[in-house]
Design brief:
Protein name: Prolamin-like domain
Structural class: mainly alpha
Oligomer: single chain
Order of helices and strands: HHHHHH
InterPro entries: Prolamin-like
GO cellular component, one term: extracellular region
Largest sheet: none
Organism: Arabidopsis suecica (Swedish thale-cress)
Keywords: Signal
């Protein structure tokens, strides 16, 4: 009986979390967009920002694993090199919910690939 109660409680929790994820974008859509940190004359092209990471097989997956786990051991040399080519203005738009991620990734990549260009 106890296992059944835990299963039901877990199922309810998952449903609530999923419902929250579906409701949240609708609420955000009615709010004013956040002010961009870049000048109005130079809009950020997210496709261009992501392109160097998508060109390295598995790099985007490595980064997402790092974002959600907080561990950077999955980020490889090729991904760190691709990271170093991304404009610093892109990062706040690529990972808006985790402003510390670019700095943590930069520090990790500095240990993996010495002499990476600074952002």
């Amino acid at each position: 009986m106890e296992n059944k109660a835990r299963t039901i409680a877990s199922l309810v929790l998952v449903v609530v979390l999923c419902a929250t994820g579906l409701i949240t974008p609708g609420v955000v859509a009615h709010e004013e967009p956040p002010q961009s940190k870049s000048p109005p004359s130079s809009p950020i092209d997210l496709e261009k920002c992501w392109s160097s990471l998508f060109n390295v097989h598995g790099c985007v997956l490595e980064l997402y694993k790092s974002v959600f786990s907080g561990k950077f051991g999955n980020v490889g040399i090729a991904c760190c090199k691709a990271y170093s080519t991304i404009d610093a203005n892109c990062w706040p738009h690529m990972f808006p919910l985790n402003p510390f991620f670019p700095h943590l990734l930069k520090d990790n990549c500095a240990h993996i690939v010495p002499n990476l260009p600074a952002h």
